[in-house]
Amino acid sequence: MPKNDEIAVEGTVTEALPNAMFKVKIDEQHEVLAILSGRIRMNFVRIVPGDKVRVVLSPYDLTRGRITWRVKG
């Protein structure tokens, strides 16, 4: 499967869950369950509720995603 099949969206972290999982609100109606990518874990980037993040969703399951970037600002 090519990498360009992934869907990248921005959202806001609403809740921190165990095992580096987060609930991310991507728009007014949708909330996804997201995990941290390996690069974020390796560089010890801290994500707290209220942070804006970039989430990559798989086209197969739009309710789960992977946090790939913490947006500054």
TrEMBL record:
Keywords: Cytoplasm, Initiation factor, Protein biosynthesis, RNA-binding, rRNA-binding. InterPro entries: NA-bd_OB-fold, RNA-binding_domain_S1_IF1, TIF_IF1. Residues 1-72 form the S1-like domain. It comes from the Bacteria. One of its GO terms (molecular function) is rRNA binding. It holds the Pfam family eIF-1a. SUPFAM superfamilies: Nucleic acid-binding proteins (SSF50249). Gene3D superfamilies: Nucleic acid-binding proteins. PROSITE patterns: S1_IF1_TYPE. It is found in: Cytoplasm. CDD domains: S1_IF1. One of the essential components for the initiation of protein synthesis. Stabilizes the binding of IF-2 and IF-3 on the 30S subunit to which N-formylmethionyl-tRNA(fMet) subsequently binds. Helps modulate mRNA selection, yielding the 30S pre-initiation complex (PIC). Upon addition of the 50S ribosomal subunit IF-1, IF-2 and IF-3 are released leaving the mature 70S translation initiation complex. Component of the 30S ribosomal translation pre-initiation complex which assembles on the 30S ribosome in the order IF-2 and IF-3, IF-1 and N-formylmethionyl-tRNA(fMet); mRNA recruitment can occur at any time during PIC assembly. PANTHER family: TRANSLATION INITIATION FACTOR IF-1, CHLOROPLASTIC. Belongs to the IF-1 family. This is Translation initiation factor IF-1. It comes from Reticulibacter mediterranei. The gene is infA_1.
